[in-house]
Design a protein that fits this description.
The protein has 322 residues and is of the alpha/beta class. It folds into two domains: 172 residues, P-loop containing nucleotide triphosphate hydrolases (Rossmann fold, 3-Layer(aba) Sandwich), CATH 3.40.50.300; 109 residues, GMP Synthetase, Chain A, domain 3. The strands form two sheets. Strands 1, 2, 3, 4, 5, 6 and 7 form a seven-stranded mixed sheet that branches. Strands 8-9-10 form a three-stranded mixed sheet. Helix 6 packs antiparallel against helix 8. The two termini are 28 Å apart. The protein binds guanosine-5'-triphosphate and magnesium ion (MG). Magnesium ion binds next to helix 1.
Length: 322
């Protein structure tokens, strides 16, 4: 969408947000936006799709591309997640590579460079979770950054942030805005994403499943929205009727997701509904079902429906859905 009546002072920048699972990509994006848009949990591999998160400061539009954490795996599902991340750099003016300060720093960079399989354009390094390190200002980051530049020649500068405390977020926002170039905005004022409410509704349901379910189950759960109907009478508050299916891998998981006398699915639904209501600004009626779909994470049709097309290194040639 190119908007016609653009302000002459408009500027814009598209920024790919990259890094290993759980480094704090979505948390940073939410903090910069001032909105709990992207799903965050304490478990790795929370984000599964690449999408735009948009905010504006005065006349400057910043489009942050959230991506799944890139990681080593030979599993088809993970290959597709990695591909989402790899494609995140396409069209970006700048990459932010996030590095978790609580883990081995250079190992993260080496793994990332290896998995990206292509040279990165202009990149800034963002060291995350500064609040978890005692005296983080004393870290030899200048030295680490020099090593990183040997691995990523286009790494131009670095930041030390905490999304929990807001450390240096103002500086990061300022630097992004200063780097934006004059040009039209991609999004209308007030738009926050290229994904619709239907997508975020499924994300908020999955977020609760991720938080509430244990062991391998969160990774074997997917959510599909069957119906998203708006039924607001003229002048009345908006009402959304949503039906969604929680897909599980094995029959035994159905009972766990439903819970004793339906307690678990009720809890997932109640929590997700609150968050969806905050998004739509109206009442939400949420109907959840559980469906067993064995090995859905290997099923091309399901994966495509989840917005995960085949990767360049997918195990076999998948036939496109007719
Ligand atoms: N203490 C602290 N925890 C953080 C910070 N940033 C993120 N976290 C925590 O780290 C975990 C992962 O955060 P996410 O934002 O989901 O990480 P991500 O990189 O988007 O992860 P994936 O989507 O799985 O790739 C969550 O438990 C966050 O609360 C931070 O600055 N400080
Ligand atoms: Mg994420």
């Amino acid at each position: 969408m190119l908007l016609t009546d653009q302000h002459p002072h408009n500027k814009s920048i598209m920024v790919a947000v990259l890094g290993a699972p759980n480094v704090g990509k979505s948390s940073m994006i939410n903090y910069l936006m001032g909105l709990d848009l992207s799903v965050v949990t304490h478990k790795p591999q929370t984000t599964r799709n690449r999408f735009h998160c948009v905010f504006t400061v005065d006349h400057t539009e910043v489009v942050l591309v959230d991506t799944p954490g890139i990681h080593r795996s030979s599993v088809e599902f993970n290959k597709r997640l990695n591909e989402q991340a790899r494609e995140g750099v396409e069209g970006a003016d700048l990459n932010l590579l996030l590095i978790d300060l609580t883990k081995e720093l250079l190992v993260q960079v080496k793994d990332f460079v290896h998995l990206m399989e292509k040279e990165l354009g202009r990149t800034w390094i963002v060291f995350t979770k500064a609040d978890r390190i005692e005296n983080s200002d004393a870290l030899p980051l200048e030295e680490v950054f020099e090593h990183i530049q040997e691995l990523i020649p286009n790494a131009k500068r670095y930041f030390l942030i905490s999304s929990k405390k807001g450390t240096n977020m103002h500086e990061l926002t300022g630097a992004l805005c200063d780097t934006a170039t004059p040009g039209p905005h991609m999004y209308l004022d007030g738009s926050v994403s290229n994904k619709n409410e239907r997508f975020f509704a499924s994300e908020y349901i999955r977020e609760q499943a991720f938080e509430l379910l244990k062991e391998e189950i969160p990774y074997e759960v997917a959510v599909l929205i069957d119906e998203f109907k708006d039924a607001a009478d003229k002048g009345a508050e908006r009402q959304a009727h949503i039906s969604a299916t929680i897909i599980v891998n094995r029959p035994s998981q159905r009972g766990i997701v439903v819970g004793t006398k339906g307690s678990m699915i009720k809890e997932i639904g109640t929590r997700a509904r609150m968050k969806i209501q905050a998004m739509t600004g109206g009442e939400v009626h949420l109907n959840l079902h559980v469906k067993v779909s064995p090995r859905w994470f290997k099923n091309n049709y399901v994966l495509e429906e989840l917005g995960l097309p085949r990767a360049h290194n997918s195990a076999r040639v998948w036939r496109a859905k007719k």
